[in-house]
Amino acid sequence: MYREGTNTRAKAVTKGCPQGSVLGPRLWNLLFDGVLRRLSESGRDVIAYADDLVVLVTENSRAALERTATDVVAQLIALCGEVRLTVSREKTVMMLLRGHLSADRPPIVDVEGVRVRAVREFKYLGVTLSAGMGLDTHVETVSAKAINCMAKVTRLKERHWKKLASAQRTVLLKVNRAYRTAPTVAMPVLAGVLPIRYEAWWRWAAYRIKRRVPVCVPGIVELTAEQVEDRSVRRYAIVKDALMTAWQRDWEAASTGRLTYEFLPDVRDRMSKKFIRPDFEVTQFLVGHGEFLAKLHSLGLRDQDKCSCGEPETARHVLVDCARYNDLREQFRLRGLTLRDMVGRPGTMDDLRSFARAALKRLVAWHASGVGGAVQQAG
């Protein structure tokens, strides 16, 4: 409805937002600002957001608090009445924020014969405040919502973890200089980086810890509000250790990458060995995918899988067993070492790297000349 001169016209609203208008918020501010100013001028401590109003009352005794609070509410109702606004008595509540008065016996505030309801907590602008300025209820509520949301996100993302792992695999194949047939589960271990799933959880948890928000990675780790707030708690270390434990369980239970597991059975130990730097030759021995007849045969790339000594030509066979490489094992001091020992120290790692280069050079030359599989077939 609008007015043109002395005429009043009415028009039905068929679209848009019929409960409000573009000017509505501004007009409300102009109207309510006068109420707030007069409350402030009379010494009242007021906070307002839109039509949600909080009045803080401070006194030294119960009687004074009851008297002042009653006067404040009466004044508010009167001022609102002057501009044709009404105060919702059902939504008007009071709560003790500080002091020694018991919440079990709150002050009595009567306005126009109606007692203002006392509460132990109330929600204002999204924050739940408890008596005594406590935030426990708010933290619990937010934590429950966050845990619920993360559980939902986890379920939704389960379908996508494989895609993320595939993307990480593509990068790690290049980092490790590995053949594309190398097992996915071994790639993060060999590279010394967290699998994408745990890297994502780690970054999410670190972000929340920094902002002192509770952390819950379902089935892996949980930090309560108290732990997150307590700087004496090794919060980041707790989360990282839990993620490493989960990764270790995955690594032990994996059905692939077992040769790599013999070299590097402990993911924490691997992460501490910065001297392990995969390259094209040593990766073939650490993973078992490379120029070895047994692997090539399993992929349909060779007719048979035997070394000239009659045993399947695997990475382990070349590295540990085959007599044709005894001289290289002696030269590079690898004889008698376990696979784990070979990558245990910088010196032995360098020896393994040198052996890998020399052994693969010899092996490829033998394959090209017909020694190896061809000799075994002839025998």
From TrEMBL:
InterPro entries: DNA/RNA_pol_sf, RT_dom. Residues 1-129 form the Reverse transcriptase domain. Signal peptide: none annotated. Pfam families: RVT_1 (PF00078). One of its GO terms (biological process) is DNA biosynthetic process. PROSITE patterns: RT_POL (PS50878). It comes from Nesidiocoris tenuis. This is Reverse transcriptase domain-containing protein. It comes from the Eukaryota.
